[in-house]
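Why do we care about 3D structure at all? Because function follows from shape, and shape follows, mostly, from sequence. That is the central idea of this module. The next example makes it concrete: a single protein chain, its amino acid sequence, and then its structure expressed as tokens.
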Amino acid sequence: MKDIAIHSQEKDIREDLPWKQINTDILRSLDNPRRGYWYSIIVCLVLLAIGFTAEVIQYQHGMGMSKNHPHMWNLYIATFIFWIGMSHSGTLLSAILHIVHADWRKPIYRFAEAMTTFSLMTALLFPVIHLGRLWNFYWVVPYIPSRGTWPNFRSPLSWDGFAIMTYLTSSALFLYIGMLPDLAIARDNTTGWRKRLYSTLSLGWCGNDRQWRVFRKAYMLMAIFLIPLAVSVHSIVSSDFAMSINPGWHVTTFPPYFVAGALYSGCAAIITLFILLRYYFRWEEYMTLPILEKICKLTFAIAMMWTYLNLVEFASVWYGHDVYGKEVLWGKMTGAYAPAFWSMMFFGSVLPFTLAFRSLRRHIPTMMAVSILLNVGMWLERWMIVSPTLSQSFYPWSWDVMWPTLTSWAIVLGSFGWFGLLFLVFVKIFPSVSMYEVKEMVYHRKLATEKAAARVGGAAPAYGAHMKKEDAV
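And the structure:
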């Protein structure tokens, strides 16, 4: 046991894991999570109830409950950008790491892709909530001109609708296609309603040679398609701001800045969910400390890139000739929003240095706290993009420092409950670790080890010869 523990501390995964045990361990998550899982469900339900109640109050009494005047964009749009950003890392990193054959992604990519889908579903709530009169959303959707209304297709707001819906559809399809072999395994190992559900969703998958060849090609093509799509979505969201002439928004570096911020917050969220799932389902064998370390290193690299882009933006404004932009930047640093600005800088640029130390990267409670605080910093970043500029824009009647009301905060908290509930229900119904890819990972890692040993000792690799029949499940 001691040898196994030391082994799991140093390698991404144990190379002697039997394939049958992988099936058993992952499918056990559909039945018996730890008690903490159910406590999390209760917390999410409470948050969702708070948010729903606040939305009903706002619906009945109007947008004055969220104090959206004189700024129309405030907490809701900042939170919309936060959720859109959160959605990026899952599918984007999964697709990039799949193309470059980084096999350490295999135990974690499934829940990261699910995070993308549910983050987008959460983000889409906020433009509707932001309208106040919910039924007016019907007139905002870009539809064919049969009712005599032509949306402005030159507006980035219209592009947002197309880009986000395309990304949501593609991400959900990418997640579903990647699950097909595991749905078939679940179908063959469950009974009752679960068996009927998995039988329908697995589309008759039997794992023959033709199905695997088609599956591999389709999955790779979707991965290639999703990378530019994911980058374009957040670039378009950044264009909502960058194409205006407002000081602080009219910045050419906004698209890469938004993409870097999105990857940053998404990676931090992956660390949080990684730790939670490892605890809920006793997945210490699959969500190992070396894999957590790799995610932390990736997050640290992206954090430094985000910090660099921030400094570039500050320097270009400071040394430029835009006095209005300089005034907004100085207002962020020294004005009413200064506590939020410096908190953003600390959480976003200083705190990530904890990820540079191996002992801290391997300390689960520390990483849990750091990952949450990193996302607090990234939420503040979105708040700093939206509110300070609106409080010092070119319209004197809008010069006002605005803080969210309790109603606004309650709706934002409700969105976390909504996201958490969707995610927790998903991981309880579907295998959130890819069984077939973990088996591939174990097989290739063991084969590589035996080849290396054979080169040293002059013997032939033996894994294929002694692989047990029951392992080939």
